[in-house]
């Protein structure tokens, strides 16, 4: 398993070894010893998520309120997606910026997002399957959203893509509105409470 720190602290790309023969493919997209060696923490699994999306679907920018906050590990089991980490931590040197990794069902790269980071993805193919490992249980009132179309953030939605979004994401507030409402996590508090790779 190879690891690469993205430009935002707390966002790490993992690339596993994929074994292929005439029977098919065998891969382990998540290896706890490699994960903990890079992130400095064991993975505390609370739930898994599985989503299927057609080309052009945009999901996010999602994050968990703090407290309790939460972290996640995301990979693409089938298809292809542009997976995006957004720094929502007020006071962070990279606040309001994003970094992205292309995930697909061939390389099985994955993305780890620490507490305080927002997550979004754009499905680049029909029948794209995304799988998540999450550290927190689902509590609707703690699951928050920022608009993926906020021009201040400027997510890299491919040209010619007409974003297909949920009502929740369509109605989501901008980064500035979320900051004014006190919805966003604090960078120094995140650093004090949670390890960063």
UniProtKB/TrEMBL annotation:
Pfam families: dTDP_sugar_isom
Coiled coil regions, renumbered to chain: none
InterPro entries in UniProt: RmlC-like, RmlC-like_jellyroll, RmlC_Cupin_sf
Family: Belongs to the dTDP-4-dehydrorhamnose 3,5-epimerase family.
Protein name from the UniProt record: dTDP-4-dehydrorhamnose 3,5-epimerase
Organism: Amycolatopsis bullii
Organismal lineage: Bacteria, Bacillati, Actinomycetota, Actinomycetes, Pseudonocardiales
């Amino acid at each position: 398993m190879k690891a690469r720190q993205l430009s935002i602290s707390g966002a790490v790309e993992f690339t596993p070894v994929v074994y292929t023969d005439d029977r098919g493919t065998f891969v382990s997209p998540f290896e706890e010893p490699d994960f903990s060696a890079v992130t400095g923490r064991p993975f505390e699994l609370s739930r898994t998520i599985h989503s299927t999306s057609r080309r052009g679907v945009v999901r996010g920018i999602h994050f968990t309120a703090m407290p309790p906050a939460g972290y996640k590990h995301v990979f693409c089991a089938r298809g292809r997606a542009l997976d995006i980490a957004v720094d929502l931590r007020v006071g962070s040197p990279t606040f309001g910026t994003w970094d992205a990794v292309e995930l697909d069902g061939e390389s099985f790269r994955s993305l780890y997002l620490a507490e305080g980071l927002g997550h979004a993805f754009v499905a680049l193919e029909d029948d794209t399957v995304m799988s998540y490992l999450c550290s927190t249980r689902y509590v609707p009132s703690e699951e928050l959203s920022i608009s993926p179309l906020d021009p201040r953030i400027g997510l890299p939605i491919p040209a010619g893509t007409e974003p297909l979004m949920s009502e929740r994401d369509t109605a989501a507030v901008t980064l500035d509105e979320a900051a004014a409402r006190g919805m966003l996590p604090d960078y120094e508090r995140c650093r004090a409470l949670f390890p960063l790779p």
